[in-house]
Write a structure and sequence with these properties.
Elements lengths: L5 E2 L2 E2 L1 H10 L2 H13 L1 H12 L7 H18 L4
Antiparallel strand pairs: 1-2
Helix pairs in contact: 1-3, 2-3, 3-4
């Protein structure tokens, strides 16, 4: 699926939100791969997920919030 707001410079916040909300398995796999290689992207995912926990597709946001939190705790030292 082509997602809006994905630019040559990376994933924008609207693109991340679009992937979480409307993406399929392949879209999520690509985002997971990018999150594992980019802590800043992981922080963006965490921020977006934490602000959308009352969304109609809330389970998707809960998944990404848990995923991003776990990744950050295990792989990114406190700044």
């Amino acid at each position: 699926m082509e997602h809006r707001h994905i630019t040559d410079t990376g994933y924008t916040r609207p693109a991340i939100d679009d992937i979480i909300e409307r993406g399929g398995k392949n879209d999520w796999a690509a985002l997971q791969s990018m999150v594992r290689s980019d802590p800043d992207l992981c922080r963006k995912v965490n921020e977006i997920a934490s602000h959308n926990l009352d969304h109609p597709f809330t389970i998707r946001y809960h998944f990404w919030l848990a995923y991003s939190k776990e990744f950050l705790v295990k792989n990114v030292p406190d700044e």
